[in-house]
Design brief:
Layout (H helix, E strand, L loop, with lengths): L4 E6 L4 E3 L2 H8 L6 E5 L2 H10 L6 H5 L8 E4 L11 E10 L3 E11 L2 E14 L1 H21 L4 E5 L2 H16 L13 H14 L4 E4 L7 H16 L4 E3 L6 H5 L5
Parallel strand pairs: 4-9, 5-8, 8-9
Antiparallel strand pairs: 1-2, 1-3, 5-6, 6-7, 7-10
Length: 254
């Protein structure tokens, strides 16, 4: 039987899956679930990257206590000079669920300064990897802001951004439960990341950026997430200097 690929844009977990049983658990009885099957991996990946407009609806409609946080959409050209520190995050998983890793690219005053990779797990998901990367970015952001730096975080995971900056407020108010929707996936990391976000939300900017459209920081974070899978390093490690941009971009992409 030919393998089918299931794209979930809105569900308990989002991403591309090869198991219908697993996919069904993510969308069954989930409010306004959005998903579709495809015959090839390439078709599924292309569809997932197009992210339908409804995927950002929760962010636009949110009126929770996190409304003071600044969020925005980004285009291919991003001006990083407005912030002292810009942190791009990404997570990768092969397949999904499967081997997962996280990556980060840090720019200081618009110039590439550091790359980080790791948090490998043999039994992860794309969402877990994205959340782990965002959590690490928040740790770095809090540290930089204590030194008086302005910081922005840029992630291509709308799911992760929504979990930390929007949905967590409602879940917390309900005792970290979903109403009629079961347990919250990735709860531990969401709680840790949300606590960090909530402590700096009035000063921190978090942006959603499209994936794989040529944004340098996003491409570098992507390469680091797959590098983490290849290296199988469970720690979060700094990629050694010197950083040769062409060499990094020639690494496997997610």
């Amino acid at each position: 039987m030919a393998t089918k690929y299931y794209v979930v844009w809105a569900g308990r977990e989002t991403g591309i899956f090869t198991s219908w049983d697993y996919t069904k658990k993510q969308v069954d009885k989930f409010p306004q679930a959005k998903y579709k099957s495809f015959k090839t991996k390439a078709e599924a990946e292309a569809a997932f990257k197009r992210v339908p407009s409804y995927a950002g609806a929760a962010q636009k409609k949110s009126t929770t206590a996190s409304s003071s946080a600044k969020t925005a959409k980004a285009t291919k050209a991003i001006d990083l000079s407005q912030f002292d520190v810009s942190i791009f995050t990404d997570g990768g998983c092969e397949p999904n669920p499967g081997k997962a890793g996280s990556g980060i690219a840090i720019y200081r005053s618009g110039e590439l300064a550091e790359l980080w990779y790791g948090l490998y797990t043999a039994h992860g998901t794309n969402n877990t990897a994205e959340l782990n990367a965002l959590h690490q970015a928040l740790l770095l952001a809090v540290s930089a802001m204590k030194d008086g730096k302005s910081v922005q975080i840029l992630s291509d995971s709308q799911y992760s951004i929504n979990c930390i900056t929007h949905w967590a407020y409602g879940w917390k108010a309900k005792g970290w439960k979903r109403q009629k929707a079961g347990d919250i996936k990735n709860l531990d990391i969401i709680q840790q990341a949300h606590e960090l976000f909530d402590s700096v939300k009035d000063k921190l900017t978090i942006m959603h950026v499209p994936a794989h459209v040529g944004i340098e920081g996003n491409e570098l974070a992507d390469r680091m997430s797959i590098y983490a899978i290849d290296k199988k390093d469970s720690q979060f490690c700094r990629y050694p200097d010197p950083i040769v941009l062409s060499n990094i971009l020639s690494l496997r992409a997610g």
